[in-house]
Amino acid sequence: MYKILRNNMENTNLLNPERLQKASKMLKAMAHPLRVAILNLLSENKKLTVTEIHQSLHIEQSTTSHHLGILKDKGVLLSKRDGKNSYYFLQNNNLKHIIECLNKCTDCD
Known about the structure:
The chain has 109 residues and is an alpha+beta fold. The chain has one domain: Arc Repressor Mutant, subunit A (Orthogonal Bundle), CATH 1.10.10.10. It contains six helices and three strands.
């Protein structure tokens, strides 16, 4: 009986409207080709600066900053300032699983 109640509480927590809203915003923020590329880089390299990201992806620094801002605003990324540089990284390492899933799904053509 306790196990059933606990499972129902866990399911209710997963269906919590606030959690669903947050998850939806995060997924929408990730749903752009350049942002997926940025997340791929960050999942491999842990922490990178705007310069490192824009040079790796061969895109303008302003474009990179724009997309990083969106990902940060929606809770996908965090940043830490160190001197002149801001380092960007995944807010939660579990996001790597989503990135891995995307990579596997796109390999199935």
